[in-house]
Write a structure and sequence with these properties.
This protein has 12 helices and 10 strands. It is an alpha+beta fold. It has 3 domains: 80 residues, Arc Repressor Mutant, subunit A (Orthogonal Bundle), CATH 1.10.10.10; 161 residues, 2-Layer Sandwich (Beta-Lactamase), CATH 3.30.450; 87 residues, Enolase-like, domain 1, CATH 3.30.390. A 5-stranded antiparallel β-sheet has the order 7-3-10-9-8, with helices on both faces. Strands 4-5-6 form a 3-stranded antiparallel β-sheet. It is elongated. The N and C termini lie far apart (67 Å).
């Protein structure tokens, strides 16, 4: 049946069945609906409508009871047309925002906190990718003298991506020289993408500056090939213990999609990566494209600031998921992270007096 052909009564009954089944995990009977929700219709009328919904692939009948349970199509229609998205309690919002405020200048702590909050509040598995520019852009360089001719190069890109490598210079260089070189590069390169930079270093740079410039180009080139930054997970045990999965292996297959980088990047590139920042996307039962997710649902959102840096966050759980609460939580955390990206990642660096 076309979604538009459902009557208002059928929509009401379908919505109540989905809510009841999500909450209790048991097949829903017509009698229970009439009694629990004081419906102004008889059990026979509800039962007849349930038969129509079953024939239209929105409900399935179980073998051992008179009740019915929602199909994947029912969940999709519920999320798209019927769901009320609840407002998170004010006290919960305040608690969460305060935690993020305390971590506002530590990008990695945001990611860990976001993954933890999502997993705890949804009782499911969470995934958060670090914010990253669509085209990696230079933010800040540090050159730190260690021992002898060894120097630690730390390159930070707008969006939070960090690259570190140990260098061995041809001759000893003082920390003062290293700091001066880093400051010159920070002035010249701040906010630049790899495609905006020439292969040859600026003529005013000395030999050390030219060498560091070429190394920075190499790192920006490598960063261009990465679709997502560092990935943070939490709540794996929630998934493995979730009664909504008929077998643990179904949960493990779903988790592997998020854990294995090539599969994850393929999933994100085909779904939420191309959506607007702030939008929430729900994938139910793999949507016919991802067999590993056939017993799972994913709620994903893109956060950040367009043309500055963006990332992805989401929750993976069973199809019998409290979608309203989960979507509200994902949307709220995405909003917090977007604000943090805007507040802290657009600020130009100050020059180091020392490293």
């Amino acid at each position: 049946m076309n979604d538009n052909l459902l009557t208002e009564r059928q929509k009401l009954i379908l919505g109540l069945i989905v809510q009841e089944y999500v909450e209790k995990g048991k097949p829903v009977s017509s009698t229970r609906l009439v009694e629990d929700y004081d419906l102004e219709m008889s059990s026979a009328t509800v039962r007849n409508e349930m038969v129509v919904l079953e024939e239209s692939s929105y409900l399935r009948k179980t073998h051992d009871t008179a009740g019915r349970e929602p199909t994947e199509d029912a969940y999709r229609f519920f999320v798209r047309e019927l769901m009320q998205r609840p407002q998170l309690p004010v006290s919960l919002r305040h608690t969460i925002s305060h935690q993020f405020y305390q971590a506002r200048y530590d990008t990695s702590q945001w990611m860990r906190l976001a993954a933890s909050v999502l997993a705890h509040q949804s009782n499911a598995a969470s995934i958060v990718t670090a914010p990253q520019s669509e085209q990696p852009r230079y933010k800040h360089l540090q050159l730190i003298s260690t021992t002898g001719r060894q120097v630690l190069m730390v390159l930070v890109m707008i969006g939070g991506r960090v690259s570190q490598q140990m260098l061995v210079l041809g001759e000893p260089v003082t920390q003062e020289q290293l700091t001066g070189t880093a400051n010159v590069l920070n002035r010249v390169l701040y906010g630049k993408e790899r495609r905006n930079l020439s292969l040859a270093p600026p003529v005013e740079m000395d030999a050390l500056g030219a060498e560091m410039y070429r190394l920075v180009l190499d790192e920006l080139t490598r960063a261009e090939s990465a679709l997502t930054g560092e990935v943070y997970h939490d709540g794996w045990t929630n998934m493995l213990a979730e009664p909504g999965f008929e077998e643990v292996e179904s949960a493990r297959r779903a988790l592997r999609v998020l854990e294995e980088r090539p599969r994850l990047e393929n999933l994100l590139s085909q779904t939420v990566m191309n959506t607007e920042v702030g939008g929430v996307q729900v994938l139910i039962g793999g949507e016919g494209n991802w067999e590993e997710l056939s017993h799972s649902s994913l709620v994903l959102a893109r956060y950040g600031v367009p043309e500055l840096a963006t990332g992805i966050l989401g929750v993976l759980g069973p199809i019998r998921m409290p979608y309203g609460h989960t979507i509200s939580m994902v949307n709220y955390i995405a909003g917090i992270l977007s604000n943090l990206v805007g507040e802290t990642m657009s600020e130009p660096p100050v020059e180091d007096g020392s490293n």
